[in-house]
Structure formats: structure tokens, C-alpha cells
Design a protein that fits this description.
This protein is mainly alpha-helical and 145 residues long. It is built from seven helices and no strands.
């Protein structure tokens, strides 16, 4: 836990990167329209005002912080050195991939019972795999992980 407190700003930057990926990933010009269609979401500006998108975005950022902190903690806990700064990029990528795959597996369990289409699963699961990898790379480049 002390390591996470030591690397707090790297975790915040990694969470910003993860969150920014979501803005690109779910943008209507990339995967956004297909994602909304696969989840049965109709783009209605009036309804979006009512649903409190600010709260949704804020909670999404908190989730990105939790993912980034988990990646940092696991990377540091499994590092061979005294501190997480001794981890190699490959080690950090393995941890990022592991955390992303855990998220993807959790999503698949829910989507199987909700009978969601395959493209909904792939869009959501791959977002977390890529986001976790980017968070791990970001923290490694910033000297924590």
C-alpha cells in the first residue's frame, strides 16, 4: 500500500490515459456507434442530459484510478527489486495484460447471462485490455511500475 502512496501522481496520469482511451474508443467515429447499437442505446441528446453524464464520467474516472492503482500494486508486489521502479517494461506489460484479461473475463461472465452480442463483448473487453496495457506503459515510463 505504501508503494501506491509513493506513486500517486503516476497512477493519476495513468488513469487519465486510460480515461482518454475511453473517449477515443467509444467515440462515434471509432467504435461508439457499433457499441451503442450492440447495447441497444439510442443517442438522444435530451435523454443524455437527464441521465447525469457528468456523474457517469466521474465514476468512470474513479474506475480508471482503481485499475491503475491495481496495476501499480501488483507490478510492485511482484517486482524482484526493492521498489517498483526496478520492474522491466516486459514485467509491467504482463501485469497490465493480466489485469485487462481479468476485466475481460468478468465482463464475459456478465454478458453471457445477459445474452449480449459478441461485438458488445469484444468492444468492452478489448477496451480494458488495451487500457490496462497503456496504464502499465504510462506508469513504467514515469518511473513507477
Amino acid at each position: 500500500m505504501i508503494v501506491i502512496l509513493h506513486c500517486w501522481w503516476q497512477i493519476i496520469v495513468a488513469a487519465i490515459v486510460y480515461f482518454a482511451l475511453g473517449a477515443l474508443w467509444f467515440n462515434p467515429k471509432t467504435f461508439g456507434n457499433a457499441w451503442m447499437k450492440s447495447h441497444g442505446i439510442v443517442r438522444d441528446p435530451e435523454k443524455m442530459k437527464e441521465t447525469g453524464m457528468g456523474i457517469t464520467m466521474g465514476l468512470s474516472f474513479v474506475c480508471a484510478l482503481i485499475f491503475s492503482a491495481a496495476i501499480c500494486w501488483i507490478c510492485c508486489a511482484t517486482s524482484s527489486g526493492e521498489c517498483c521502479q526496478s520492474s522491466s517494461l516486459i514485467h509491467c506489460l504482463k501485469i497490465g495484460f493480466l489485469v485487462g484479461m481479468i476485466a475481460a473475463t468478468s465482463i464475459s461472465l456478465a454478458y453471457l447471462y445477459q445474452m449480449k452480442p459478441l461485438n458488445a463483448f469484444l468492444t468492452d473487453a478489448l477496451y480494458h485490455v488495451v487500457g490496462s496495457l497503456l496504464a502499465a506503459i504510462t506508469m513504467h515510463l514515469l518511473g513507477c511500475c
